[in-house]
Amino acid sequence: MLSDVAGLNIQQRRLVRMMETKIETTEFSSREHCNSYQNCHPNKTPEDERYRLKHIFLREKYEHVMEASTNYLYETNRIRHRVYQIEKQCRQMRCLKRVLCQLLDDHGDLYYKAHLEILDEDPPPTFLDALPKESNWTMEPARKKSKTKVSTQL
Fold it and tell me: What is the mean pLDDT of the chain?
């Protein structure tokens, strides 16, 4: 059998062996049996066998690529739909902002002097924020211990 798959690499050989066991275990329907070239011609040359194995390999490869393409298309459509929803919400918010600014302007409010930006995230913590709040340490130099002995009475 290795002489039949001499031009194939290791992965292709494994796939061919797997497909051959799959073909041997499954029965062909009468329609497949009559329409299939390899079943209608029992006297096949080694070259025909190589082409058959190559056809099997390429069919499996095609199915794998189609499955990956389908998954990719699904993810692309999902992300495209999400981007559309976010753009739609942004348009609605801009319209709402315009209406609210118009109402404030009609009432004589000076909204344009105030800072209208709303931050999405908290600012990153600074170094001083990372320090413990209740620390009682000071910048005093260390005290020297006294050399006098304390007498203990029994």
Answer: 74
